[in-house]
Amino acid sequence: MSAEATNPEAHPEARPELRRRGRTRLDLRRLGRAALLGPTSRDRLPDAIGHVAEAHRAHHPDADLSILRRAYLLAETSHRGQMRKSGEPYITHPLAVTLILAELGAETTTLTASLLHDTVEDTDVTLDQVRAEFGDEVCFIVDGVTKVEKIDYGAAAEPETFRKMLVATGNDVRVMSIKLADRLHNMRTLGVMRPEKQARIAKVTRDVLIPLAERLGVQALKTELEDLVFAILHPEEYESTRALIAAHAGERDPLPAIADSVRGVLRDAGIAAEVQVRPRHFVSVHRIARTRGELRGSDFGRILVLVGENADCYAVLGEMHTCFTPVVSEFKDFIAAPKFNLYQSLHTAVATPEGYVAEVIVRTRQMHRVAEAGVVALGNPYATATPDAATDPDEERVDPTRPGWLSRLLDWQQSAPDPDTFWTVLRAELAQDREITVFRADGGTLGLPAGASCIDAAYAQHGEAAHGCIGARVNGRLTSLSSPLSDGDTVQLLLAQDASSGPAAEWLDHARTPAARIAIGSWLEAHPDRAMATTSAARAPLSVVGARGGGGNAVADLPDATVRLAGCCTPVPPDAVAGFLVRGGAVTVHRIHCAAVAQMRAVGRTSVAVHWRATADVRVTLLAESFGRPHLLADLTEAIAREGVEVVSATVEPPVEQRVRHSYTLQLPDAAGLPALMRAMRDVPGVYDVSRV
Questions:
Q1: How far, in Å, CA of 340 to CA of 447, rounded?
Q2: Measuring CA to CA, which residue among 521, 520, 522, 513 is closest to residue 409?
Q3: SS3 assignment for 316-373
Q4: Beta-bridge partners for 83
Q5: Are residues 140 and 93 in contact, defined by beta-carbon separation less than 8 angstroms?
Q6: What sign for the dihedral angle of Cα 213, 215, 218, 222?
Q7: How far apart, in whole angstroms, are the C-alpha atoms of residue 458 and residue 442?
Q8: Which of 98, 305, 340, 452 could form a disulfide with 114 if both were Cys (CB 3.0 to 4.6 A apart)?
Q9: DSSP run (H or E) holding 188
Q10: Is 631 left (phi over 0), alpha (psi -120 to 50) or beta?
Q11: What is the pTM of this model?
Q12: What is the DSSP letter of 24?
């Protein structure tokens, strides 16, 4: 970690947001001297860690600070004599990282591990010593951070580092919290590095760590990292944005007056609320400028309203939309439908009489904590776990706060064939900015990225067994595997019984998740002949015609008339029927409820009385709809034969999106056997419906 450290004053433009917000910056050189001098009394906290203790007590008034004192003393002693590239004592780095986490509200265990996060890697301190002194939880976190930092794979260093980091994060999300704070401090002090190394570190931060901070909901770290990366990778655009903000600082800002109006409205309504003006960070201003062109005074910040209860949020929204002109298109309810990263708020925009449009965010104070600190604000997610949960570093612990996207990453990273594929797919996965939840037929849930299809749901639920997926029902209705899913859908996946079934090449066009794409690609590579077969051109309909002909069982009360059973409704005994005289003197027979009966009567066709012969022998046409698979036609024919029914003719249409339609004209020895025949055909694997034509 020390390789990325330098003098914090050497790169002042790399801290625009903190300077603009007026936050107090620590003098790390003074802390370094305090670290070397040590405490004056064994009963009081060292001066160097006093800032951490103050920030920690602001969030956790009853916290026991003695463990922080012991962790600091061990870290300072073990790092003594080590210096950063800027010439500062190395202890200033873990102190700064710990202070970042303390300001976000991290609990004591996380801060303790943060103070010690470099000791096992860079000093003679061992994990056993950390465990003996601070317990299993601290040891587990320090070990996770150490595993991330120890990796050196040459050209594959970055992909493999982040693969290990994901695994460590999956075992304890606090590992990622420390990693993000560590990268933030190193980015703040990056100015001494060569420009090419600054750019490399900034690109990795942009591509992976910033999306991970977004996914974990740690907006306070994410926004500052964005500004630091922006300053390094896009210096000209950064300077123009800085000039825009500086020019705005010299003008009249309308947002404070709008905030006063909002306070008055809420005070008159009897709603207790805190109203703030939140300046936008540099990257946000840059995005708004690119979208809207010329910026107005209200574009440089937003109004933040903090209340006590969820119901108060909607009360504030009602007052805002009543007393101001709402911009309807800007309203978003992230309380009823939270984002995948735990974020909850109401977003709206209102127009003032002066013509300004102000964006307004409404949330509770607890929502605000989570919006700023994400998983860091959740405390210890393993507080109810068994005491031995952390003793085995190879055993994955159940994390109640682990989001669905992290579980997906942990699943598919094991299947990624090489570092380059892992790196490419990781960046694509992190680029997804929205997640949906779908319900399984058994009542469980699946977390999927927005735009995911039934194919993605199949691989998320069944893994490689999804190769045999032949269809799905979404909200009870049959649909193709390529159908996209929406948030809240219920999906039932249909799997083939044939173990040799495999995915089609076109599945890759509809798969969005890395797990599905990697699994499909691996199967197609292992079965090149089958892959070619799935993409071959559709064949013409296959027709099988039996030798038997003859008429039906209907008799018309018209001597010597030819009787035909209508193909639109295929009547069979004992259906109630009606007959009509058509051209050529023939009589067509329809079921009494067939739509054609009304049409025949409307055009004045002559009605002819018809009845069924005494014999039970009948002919009927059935339509079987199924998902395509090998041997389906043979299995259907066998099921029909087992019922003692003769096939007069059969037509198989070309498959469309793996769905096939079979038409059978059948001769039944007894009409009473028709329901049993249809049930037998539906029981054939892959067949989802059988109906009379």
A1: 9
A2: 513
A3: HHHHHHHHCEECHHHCEECCCCCCCCCCCCEEEEEECCCCCEEEEEEEEHHHHHHHHH
A4: 89
A5: no
A6: positive
A7: 14
A8: 98
A9: helix 173-188
A10: left
A11: 0.62
A12: P
Q: Please give the helix or strand (H or E) that residue 278 lies within, else none.
A: strand 274-279
The DSSP 8-state label assigned to residue 481 in this structure reads T
Amino acid making up residue 210: I
CA dist 476 and 304 (Å) reads: 43
Burial class, 249, CB count within 10 angstroms (exposed 0-12 / middle 13-18 / buried 19+): exposed
Own/partner contacts of 236-239, CB < 8 Å, gap of 24 or more, are 237/286, 238/13, 238/282, 238/286
Q: Which two tokens stand for residue 613?
A: 């012969």
Active site residue 506: no
> At a CB cut-off of 8 Å and minimum separation 6, what does 544 contact?
647, 649, 650, 651
Selection from 345, 359, 343 nearest residue 280 by Cα: 359
Q: What would the two tokens of residue 456 be? A: 């993605």
Spans of the chain, pLDDT less than 70: 1-48, 147-171, 340, 380-434, 497-500, 529-553, 567, 584, 614-617, 656-658, 693
The span from the CA of 208 to the CA of 162, in Å, is 8
Query: Which of 270, 167, 184, 268 is CA-nearest to residue 221?
Result: 184
**How many whole angstroms separate alpha carbon 503 and alpha carbon 671?**
40
Find the helix or strand (DSSP H, E) in which 285 lies: helix 282-292
Q: What are phi and psi of 322, to 5 degrees?
A: -85, -40
Given 47, 122, 411, 498, the catalytic residue: 122
What does the pLDDT read at residue 624? 86
Q: Give backbone dihedrals phi and psi of 581, rounded to 5 degrees, phi first.
A: -80, 130
Residues 643, 648, 651: CA angle, nearest 5 degrees? 100
- Which residues, including other chains, have CB under 8 Å from residue 26's CB and lie 6 or more apart? 51, 96, 99
Neighbour count for residue 477 (Cβ, 10 Å): 8
Euclidean distance between CA atoms 504 and 520, whole angstroms: 8
Burial 433-471 (b: 16+ CB within 10 A, else e): eebbebeeeeeeebbbbeebbbbbbbbbbeeeebbbbbb
What is the chain's Cα-based Rg? 35
The residue from 9, 121, 411, 498 that is catalytic is 121
pLDDT on residue 404:
53
User: Chain-centre distance of CA 275, in angstroms?
Assistant: 32
Beta-strand pair 346-351/469-474:
unpaired
> β-strand 469-474 against 607-608: which pairing, if any?
unpaired
Q: What six digits make up the tokens of 689? A: 């419906």
Q: Which amino acid is at 77?
A: T
pLDDT of residue 171: 65
